[in-house]
Write a structure and sequence with these properties.
- Helix 1 packs across helix 3 (about 95-110) and helix 9 (about 240-245) packs parallel to helix 11.
- About 35% of the residues lie in helices and about 20% in strands.
- The chain contains 13 helices and 18 strands.
- It is of the alpha/beta class.
- The protein starts with 5 loop residues before the first strand and ends with a helix.
- It is globular.
- Strand 2 and strand 3 form a beta hairpin.
- The protein has an 8-stranded parallel β-sheet with strand order 7-8-9-10-11-12-13-14. Strands 1-4-5 form a 3-stranded antiparallel β-sheet. The chain has a 3-stranded antiparallel β-sheet with strand order 6-17-16, with no helix packed on it.
- The chain has 2 domains: about 5-120, Enolase-like, N-terminal domain (Enolase-like, domain 1), CATH 3.30.390.10; about 125-345, Enolase-like C-terminal domain (TIM Barrel), CATH 3.20.20.120.
- The structure holds magnesium ion (MG).
Length: about 350
């Protein structure tokens, strides 16, 4: 009798180059989960980057993976129905579903010997990503900006919502004239947001993300009407149904696999958003290239990419994504196009 697909997972430790902070707090070291699906001699990998912002932990993700292993059945090519069963049973653990979804796509594409982007019928991914400057002391922020500019980045994403926003943004604008994305991570009340956004106009932002608390959808439209910059939501928009409900309140949505559950759900959100006239963005959390590759595989479909999660690391355990300045791309390797780097291979076997 043929063997059933085997699902396993292990944690990996990631070290950001700098302490990474937003208006919600910071991290100096982070663990994610590498998911491994083995069947018929082929191994597919995916990464789970759980976020406590969405009620996900390493433990809750591992518990969900344990339950999802039962739902794979004998045929891992049935990605759509496997993911539908996972969403039906583990709706609140979408980071884990995203890891399995990635491993299934990687497995299927490797089994066929083609890249994931090709089995999806898409162009070879080669897109500009923003590079994120986290909240930090002025000297450290200046150093991060100089490093980013020296590395050729032409789009920066800056976390705002701190007392010294003006100091930071003036310093950045004195050095950098390119695309500037601002993310407040739910920092402001509606009144504050109106004042702050009007004030931010002088820095010519490309967009402003998540100015209000995630549950406050009511005041978003007023901020959009200020006409300073397109208003995007991130924390407010987690799943396909949220795109529908936010359609008349914002200009765009930031879609992340940790929130929505992988390639399948992200594609549904992108098509819904486009149909409703919304701009789309793919974002990420601090993670290795294994979590970036599935998002990059569908990145030719969106307006903006903020896929720098692995670029913020001191030492990425996965190889395969090429970077030239701000442009990140995948080649023609089978599957997701990334593999464990030499050093990581030793520590994971
Ligand atoms: Mg954000």
């Amino acid at each position: 009798m043929a063997q059933k697909p085997r699902l396993s997972w292990n944690r990996q430790t990631l070290r950001p180059r700098h302490r990474f902070a937003t208006s919600q707090g910071g991290v100096t070291e982070k663990q994610t989960i590498v998911v491994r699906l083995e069947h018929e001699g082929v191994v597919g990998l995916g990464e789970v980057a759980p976020s406590k912002l969405y009620g996900q932990t390493l433990e809750s993700s591992e518990a969900a993976l344990g339950g999802m292993a039962e739902l794979i059945g004998n045929d891992p090519f049935r990605i759509e129905s496997i993911i539908a069963s996972c969403l039906g049973n583990f709706d609140d653990q979408r980071a884990a579903i995203g890891g399995l979804d990635s491993a299934l796509h990687d497995w299927a594409a490797r089994r066929w010997g083609v890249p994931v982007w090709r089995i999806l019928g898409l162009d070879r991914p080669s897109v500009r990503t923003t590079f994120t400057i986290g909240v930090a002391e002025p000297d450290e922020t200046r150093q991060k900006v100089d490093e980013a500019l020296a590395a050729g980045f032409t789009a920066l994403k800056v976390k705002v919502g701190a007392e010294r926003d003006h100091e930071t943004l003036s310093m950045i604008r004195s050095r950098f004239g390119g695309a500037l994305f601002l993310d407040a991570n739910e920092a402001w009340t509606p009144g504050e947001a109106r004042r702050r956004i009007a004030d931010l106009a002088r820095y010519r932002p490309t967009m402003i993300e998540q100015p209000l608390a995630r549950a406050d959808w009511e005041h978003l439209r007023g901020l959009r009407d200020l006409g300073v910059a397109p208003i995007f939501v991130d924390e407010s928009c987690q799943r396909p149904a949220d795109v529908l409900r936010l359609a008349n309140a914002v200009d765009g949505v930031n879609i992340k696999f940790t929130k929505c559950g992988g390639i399948r759900e992200a594609l549904r959100m992108i098509w819904l958003a486009r149909g409703l006239g919304l701009k789309t963005m793919l974002g990420c959390f601090v993670s290795s290239s294994l979590a970036i590759a599935p998002a990059l595989s569908i990145a030719s479909l969106v307006d903006y990419c903020d896929l720098d999660g692995a670029l913020l690391l001191a030492d990425d355990p996965f190889d395969g994504i090429a970077r030239d300045g701000s442009v990140i791309s995948l080649g023609g390797l089978p599957g997701l196009g990334v593999s464990p780097a030499g050093a990581a291979l030793k520590s994971h076997t």
